[in-house]
Amino acid sequence: MPPAPLSLFADAELNPRTRARFRGPDARRPADCTPAPRPEAAPPRDDQLAHAGGGPTLDDLVVGVWEGLSAHRTVPCPACGGEMTPRYGSGPGPVGGRCTACRSTLA
User: Fold this and answer.
1) pLDDT exceeds cutoff 60 at 82
2) Suppose 23 and one of 8, 17, 27, 83 were both cysteines; which one would form an S-S bond, judging by CB atoms 3.0 to 4.6 Å apart?
3) 63-101: buried (b, 16+ CB within 10 Å) or exposed (e) per residue?
4) Bridge pairing between strands 75-76 and 105-106
């Protein structure tokens, strides 16, 4: 005979859905529980305002790195700022780049 399946909520007292029915509609929340007021949004800090716009986007950064690598130049790594050198495949053009400092790749 196969073993009986294990039921975690066999008793009505253990099942949170049926337990609430036995205690009434407010059984899940204590009587003295009141919702906390929503906190107001904090004003933006000066460093957040400085980065809110005007800087290069991720697209600008990646395109700049690709342009440098495709011109067979060493460019600053977008992750750590180290030197990223072009990586070559079987053809004459670079297929990506690898940072000499953090070893991250761009392909």
Assistant:
1) yes
2) 27
3) eebeebbeeeeebebbeeeeebbbeeeeeeebeebbbee
4) unpaired
Tell me the C-alpha distance between 78 and 31, whole Å: 55
Please compute Rg for the chain using Cα positions. Answer: 30
The sign of the torsion formed by the CA atoms of 16, 18, 22, 5 equals negative
pLDDT at residue 91 greater than cutoff 80: yes
Q: What is the DSSP letter of 45?
A: P
Domains of the chain by residue range:
59-106
Write the CA distances from 61 to 1, 4, 17, 78, integer angstroms: 67, 61, 53, 7
pLDDT tens-digit series, residues 15-74: 666 655 555 555 555 555 566 666 565 565 555 555 566 778 888 889 999 999 999 999
